[in-house]
Design brief:
The structure holds 2 protein chains of 2 kinds. Chain A has 16 helices and 28 strands. Chain A is an alpha/beta fold. Chain A has a 6-stranded mixed sheet with strand order 13-12-11-14-16-15, sandwiched between helices. Chain A has a 6-stranded mixed sheet with strand order 27-26-17-18-19-28, with helices on both faces. In chain A, strands 2-1-7-3-5 form a 5-stranded mixed sheet. The termini of chain A are far apart. Chain B is built from 9 helices and 5 strands; from the N terminus they run H-H-H-H-E-H-E-H-E-H-E-H-E-H. The chains are: A alpha/beta, B alpha/beta. The structure holds cobalamin (B12) and FE2/S2 (inorganic) cluster. FE2/S2 (inorganic) cluster binds next to loops of chain A.
Chain lengths: 566, 221
């Protein structure tokens, strides 16, 4: 059987002749991007083969690779079969130095944790209880040693914090990649894998092992034994909650996406593979629907959305674009399925927010200026850069309001004109060095931003509201945190009426989960709030498609001097 | 205003391509008033314009809104000309059963493909979305379809497509239909793997594929 060796790591795997390089990479546990789960549509699993290896490989497809890259020996892992031993070079991993947003706004709640310890002087023991339930008794007085962990499971990253439940203080935090990323990038592909019992066991096992590892790190750093941690609160999207709880997410993969767990429930930590106090428990906060999970509900708690006066829009700008519209305590929620473009996926030069990614693009007189993460040489563009870039292109008239590259390039200022150059027969716009945006990339951004905007507009429409009646917008999540109100409005994802009303609240999934650890009443409050949230189903909304199609356009450029260039 | 039927057809095609519904309707009314052959006007004007729009769409020059607006213009023109079609026209009569597979309700792409198939003269039976595999087969048998066109946008529902192929095989009727598949998460490899007859990434290419498979054009064309 052929042996496939991956450099620079040196890892290798043996696969049956005719197997794909992606299979080999997974066997060898090489960390890589395969966002389309090996279907061959995303073009992100590119690696390089030397000439000798190419002779022993069967290249089935090279979608999204340029002629130049093919000539350079680039192939797609998922679309290349091994007929003999191969040497594969994995280009600089996009996940190295991945930027993870840890913090967010928090709600000031009194310290009143669910978990309590009471010293029984007579029997000289400490009683551990959760609410009314007695969980355990410990010899001696251990009342000052009571800790809990809050975890935010993102599809890509995990963030965990250790809290001293005696003081309410966060005593440590850790972040890590969600190990499931190696198997599948997006939520639905994970649903697919975990629909089979072995797949569920695999994804659950890896996830919990990683959380357990983070807990170990936190405990070691704080110099406390693991057994002093009594509770773990886990927030995440509905799929991640299923995977954490080892419940099949199969039904999330098909209409009507009915979740098999509703949250606001406890499980013994040991049964889920977490090594904390032997009586320790995991608490899963309530969820709203198959695609609006507890990362959103705890965010509602952290921002005290139910108490907000007037009309507030809470939106997590990301792959699933979840949003909640609050009208004086009445809440409606939906998810808008923006897609992976915001994570740099589906974009020719796209990458995650890691070193060398263009993260900012600004208009500067007759030209644009870019900035990269760590000020490194540009190796790609991440979501925030993409937003800025497309917004700038719309404002400068490089694309017209329909998103098409201008057909009057000659009217553009010379520096911009020079950036429009052909690549493989089609005009693309060069941002920095070799990094460009193509017409296809613009289309992907249009789908993504239109999905979120259409969600907003549909929610407003259902309530008979106009954008001007929005009192404020809260942008949650790590991606949104790196955006600017200017770009959000210029690109048309937000209505212009939100100017001056937007705040970026950060990782409220984490701060909300922490609040649930430190305040028991918050759980009941959140359960009540969540049970009253109306889940809006966009797929059956009669106006959605029309609103969505209309939202693909870019708003008229605000800069009059250049507007006639489009 | 154009002088000859050819000029008018060209102006009409351009009006559809340039998304001008008012001008499209005006030109169609003019064609009727001048007694131009309605079918030729549809073919050389409306459909020619829509095909050009479809081509631009496949090249990413046009996007979903433009293609939909162009089709609105085309349908407006069709509404005017249809009552005036005199003799039986040269429609090829090939039939397509199309729908979004069970478990999925994303239907915007499927709708675009349907429009372009109609433009190409296919008689299209649209089963809508969230359609069970068996329903595709039943309908295809019922209307004696030439092509079964399956669409999905979700990874988790792609397997429904192989189910359609299996049902056809089990019923020994696989040879009677060409099965074509499409949707963003699919690829030619996937189509090959499940034993479908073809895959196309875009709407106009989907039409080309359907034409090839039904012998309306040869593969080289
Ligand atoms: C619009 C949209 C929606 C709308 C759907 C409206 C509707 N009536 O269709 C709404 C908001 C309702 C929606 C909901 C959901 N969506 Co959605 N949605 C999208 C979005 C933004 C665009 C899809 C689209 O319309 N593309 C434009 C059309 C024109 O392209 P197309 O369909 O690919 O069609 C072209 C070709 O594929 C081809 N073609 C299509 N069909 C066929 C058939 C044949 C035979 C052939 C030959 C060719 C062909 O021709 C077409 C024209 O060129 C994508 C993300 C994205 N950026 O792409 C997510 C996306 C498809 N959705 C997704 C998901 C998961 C959902 C949800 C299940 C969950 C969620 N996160 O909210 C829900 C529930 C859906 C439901 N109830 O059914 C995921 C799928 C992920 C995956 N890997 O499978 C995506 C990719 C977003 C994401 N989260 O990553 N969604
Ligand atoms: S994983 Fe290979 S192209 Fe997407």
């Amino acid at each position: 059987m052929p042996i496939v060796t991956f450099s620079p790591s040196g890892a290798s795997a043996e696969i049956p002749a005719g197997g794909t390089l992606l299979d080999a990479a997974r066997l060898a546990r090489v960390r890589l991007e395969a966002p389309c789960n090996g279907v061959g549509t995303c073009g992100k699993c590119r690696v390089r083969l030397d000439e000798a290896s190419r002779a022993r490989a069967r290249i089935v497809a090279t979608r999204n690779l340029s002629a130049e890259q093919v000539a350079d020996g680039f192939v797609l892992l998922c679309s290349t079969l091994a007929d003999g031993d191969l040497e594969v070079t994995v280009p600089g991993s996009g996940e190295r130095g991945l930027r993870i947003l840890e913090d967010g706004v928090r709600l000031d709640l009194p310290l009143n944790p669910t978990l309590r310890k009471r010293f029984d002087a007579e029997r000289r023991c400490t009683v551990v209880s959760a609410g009314e339930r007695v969980l355990a008794e410990e010899g001696g007085d251990t009342t000052t040693r009571l800790y809990g962990v809050a975890v935010d499971i993102g599809t890509t990253t995990l963030v965990a914090s250790l809290l001293d439940l005696g003081t309410g203080a966060r005593v440590g935090s850790a972040s890590a990649l969600n190990p499931q990323v190696t198997h599948a990038q997006d939520v639905l592909s994970r649903v697919q894998i975990a629909s089979e019992p072995e797949g569920l066991a695999l994804l659950h096992g890896e996830l919990m092992a990683e959380i357990d590892r983070s807990i170990g790190l936190l405990a070691a750093e704080a110099r406390i034994p693991r057994r002093r941690i009594y509770e773990v609160v886990i927030a995440g999207n509905t799929c991640m909650m299923h995977l954490a709880a080892a419940i099949s997410p199969e039904a999330l993969g098909r209409f009507p996406y009915t979740p098999a767990l509703s949250g606001h429930e406890h499980r013994p930590a040991a049964a889920l593979g977490l090594h904390i106090a032997s009586c320790g428990e995991v608490y899963f906060p309530p969820i709203i629907s198959g695609f609006v999970g507890s990362d959103i509900t705890v965010g509602v708690l952290a921002t005290d959305l139910a108490a907000a006066e007037g009309v507030t829009l809470f939106v997590d700008i990301g792959t699933n674009g979840e949003m909640v519209l609050a009208r004086d305590g009445e809440l409606q929620a939906t998810s808008t399925a923006a897609g992976p473009a915001f994570e740099g996926m589906n974009i020719a030069c796209g990458m995650r927010a890691a070193r060398g990614a263009i993260e900012r693009v600004a208009i500067e007189r007759d030209d644009i200026r870019t900035a990269t993460i760590d000020e490194a040489e540009a190796v790609g563009i991440c979501g925030s850069g993409l937003f800025d870039a497309v917004a700038a292109m719309a404002v400068l008239g490089i694309i017209d309001s329909s998103g098409r590259f201008t057909r009057k390039a000659e009217t553009l200022p010379a520096p911009l004109r020079a950036r429009l150059r052909p690549l493989d027969g089609k005009t693309v716009f060069y941002l920095d060095g070799e990094i460009y945006l193509s017409q296809r990339d613009i289309r992907q951004v249009q789908l993504a931003k239109a999905a979120v905007r259409a969600g907003i507009d549909t929610m407003l429409l259902r309530n008979g509201l106009t954008p001007a009646q929005l009192d404020r917008a809260l942008v949650a999540g790590s991606f949104g945190y790196h955006l600017t109100t200017r770009s959000l409005i210029d690109i048309g994802l937000f209505p212009a009426e939100l100017d001056g009303k937007v705040s970026f609240v950060g990782n409220t999934a984490r701060t909300g989960a922490e609040a649930l650890l430190t305040n028991d009443e918050a759980r009941e409050t959140l359960r009540l709030v969540t049970s009253r949230v109306e889940a809006v189903e966009l797929a059956t909304d009669p106006d959605f498609t029309k609103v969505f199609v209309a939202a693909m356009a870019f708003p008229a450029p605000v800069s009059p001097a250049l507007s006639d260039a489009a | 205003m154009p002088e000859t039927p050819e000029d008018l057809h060209e102006a009409l095609a351009t009006a559809v391509l340039e998304l001008d519904e008012v001008l499209t309707a005006d030109l169609c009314n003019k064609a009727v008033a001048l007694g131009y052959d309605a079918w030729t006007t549809i073919e050389q004007g409306l459909i020619a314009g829509m095909n050009r729009a479809g081509k631009l769409f496949d090249e990413e020059e046009y996007f979903v809104p433009e293609l939909l607006i162009a089709s609105d213009a085309m349908y407006a023109g069709l509404g005017i000309l249809r009552p005036h079609i005199s003799q039986a026209n040269t429609i090829h009569g090939r039939r397509v059963v199309i729908g979004v597979v069970q478990g999925d309700t994303h239907d915007i792409g499927k709708n675009l493909v349907r429009i372009m198939l109609e433009v190409a003269g296919f008689e299209v039976f649209d089963l809508g979305r969230d359609v069970p595999a068996q329903a595709f087969v039943d309908r295809a048998v019922e209307v004696n379809a030439d092509v079964i066109a399956l669409s999905t946008l979700m990874t988790t529902t792609m397997t429904q497509m192989s189910k359609v192929v299996s049902i056809l095989e089990e019923g020994n009727i696989r040879h009677r239909f060409k099965v074509i598949v499409g949707g963003a998460p699919l690829s030619q490899q996937f189509s090959d793997r499940i034993g479908a007859d073809g895959y196309a990434p875009k709407a106009a290419q989907a039409v080309q594929l359907a034409k090839q498979l039904t012998g309306l054009v040869n593969a080289a064309a």
